[in-house]
Amino acid sequence: MAPRWKGKDTKAKKDSEDEAHKEPMSKIIYLLQSSLVQSDAAGFLSGNSVRVAVEAEQTDLFVKACFGQPVSTVEKDKQWFQLGLEEAFYLCNSLKCLKINGSNNSPQDDQELWHFMRSKKKAFSCFYKGYSHLRLKNWVVRPGAQYGVDFVVYRHHPALVHSEYGVLVLSGGDDNDCNGRLREWSDFHCTTRLLGSVAKSLLVLYISKNGVGDDSPSCLAKYTVEERTITRWSPQQCREG
Amino acid sequence: MAPRWKGKDTKAKKDSEDEAHKEPMSKIIYLLQSSLVQSDAAGFLSGNSVRVAVEAEQTDLFVKACFGQPVSTVEKDKQWFQLGLEEAFYLCNSLKCLKINGSNNSPQDDQELWHFMRSKKKAFSCFYKGYSHLRLKNWVVRPGAQYGVDFVVYRHHPALVHSEYGVLVLSGGDDNDCNGRLREWSDFHCTTRLLGSVAKSLLVLYISKNGVGDDSPSCLAKYTVEERTITRWSPQQCREG
Fold it and tell me: Which of A27, A73, A118, A190 is deepest in the core (most CB within 10 A)?
């Protein structure tokens, strides 16, 4: 499927595409990373998410890079963002541009943070491997709950382009405890039909743990990811190409 | 949700409703049952289905009662119908109006037929309990594959009314091996959103085996069925009724 740029007419769509090409996601992420490193940014654990307060310039970068949700507050000089578990850990562990404080108000090390994430989400290791796999390839990754999937991915900012894939993260190979989806044909039918109706394909990421546990974030480097797209087959449409 | 009668305009919809009330499904099923008993009808096992050849009058009743699919053949005086496993077993075991021959060309008794069904479909006992539960209440029950569910149910013939529910049959209580659906929130989101987009609700039938096995069809009487409908919750729509 080709990317579907947003816009009322052909010209507006072309403008969206040009804007995306002018400022690729890799560059936006790099700017966000540099800015957060420079300001020694720190967030804190809050329930099932991480909250971080940022300056005006960083607000723009957070929005452009599609990390978290802005939170309304009465503070004028600061903007708060609420990050999901995968998003926070990605900024912290993969981009190394965010510190996260625990309840004792001191920065958590990777190991402490890893245990926190796993205590909040049983299959965090698999979901995070899937999330980081796509973010590292500069896809914009957002929650997929409204489409009944784990994530949806965009080629660039959701303001410029429709998402192309709904993503389910499954744990293949040596165990199957990551996600109870796609065990029945009816689930395949349901998921591909729903995604098809909103012009998306189903992307399944099979995470193989290769016999490695998930006690520490160092296991992530040993996990492998197998990608498969799944689409509906229609005898009429598929005949003679 | 109110039934959605089919028709181009209000009058046509009213005609559909009147037609359904004039000839209720209970009456159609009774006529089919009587006719099949009278003609001593017999079908035979064929792969994952049962085939039965019927006279002209019975063809009409099969179509009206929504059992099976008519099969095109060159025979002029007979119409063949292909019945699904649940449909065939319902006519045979519950309505007692159809005999089914095995490979030796002699009628299978209930026990033989039960074993055949279970060899073709692992969780046949649960699916059949769900199917017969709805048919006994005079719902028209059809396969639900295109909506990613086990069945769809209609208040009357699909020519007169849209289906109101997509049905998933789950095995609750003492075991959970019937169907691997609805184990994750994302699956709930996916199913309710898809069904919502085609104006149906999700009906979940939880079958409790109550500690009884599924070695013979006599177990069915001891199974209990718990019905739940599940719909999406929207804060905007649900506030202030």
Answer: A190
